[in-house]
Amino acid sequence: MTLETANTLSPETPEDTSVPVSALWLGGTGALPFVGCAVLAVFGTQDWQGLGTQALVAYGAVILSFLGGVHWGLAIGRGPSSNVSGSHLILSVVPSLVGWAALLLPVGADLLPLALAFAAMFIVDLRLTQNGPLPAWYPKLRLPLTIVVITSLLVGAAG
Predict the structure, then answer these.
(1) Assessment of whether the complete model's pTM goes beyond 0.70
(2) Are 63 and 26 in contact, with CB atoms under 8 Å apart?
(3) Where are the domains of the chain?
(4) DSSP labels for 110-144?
(5) If you compute the radius of gyration of the chain from its CA atoms, what whole number of angstroms results?
(6) Cα–chain-centroid distance for residue 148?
(7) CA distances from 109 to 1, 18, 31, 143, 157 (A)
(8) For the chain, percent of residues with pLDDT exceeding 90
C-alpha cells in the first residue's frame, strides 16, 4: 500500500493523530519498570544493584519482543497468506532475537545492544508511519517512551 493509497482509503483527521488515552496510560505505566530498574541498578545496595540490572535486561528483552509483535500483526493483518509481507515478518522476529541475545551476554555488555535495538525499532516504526501501515499517532507515543527506555538502559549500563 502506498502513501497515496493509504490517504485515499482513510483520510487523516485530527482524531487520527491523537494518541488514544488507553495507549498513553499503558505505554506510560509500561515505562515505569525501566525507570525503577535503572534507579535500582545505580542506587541500590550491591545485592539490589545486580537484581536491578538483571531485571532491566529481562524487561528490555520482553518489551523489545513486544515491539516486534507489532510487525507480526502488520504482516498477518493483510489478509490471505499470499499478501503476507516478508519484511514485516523479519522485522517481527529480529527484536526477539536481539533481546534473547542480550540476555545471554555478560553483565555490562547486555544493556547497550538493547538501547541500540530500541533506537533502531523507533526509526523503523517512524518510517512505517510515514509510509502508511502504522497510525499517525504511533510516533507521538513511541518517541517519549523510547527516550525513557534508552535513557534507562544507558543509566543502568553506566551504573
Answers:
(1) yes
(2) no
(3) 19-158
(4) SHHHHHHHHHHHHHHHHHHHHTSSS-TTHHHHHHH
(5) 17
(6) 11
(7) 40, 38, 22, 25, 8
(8) 68
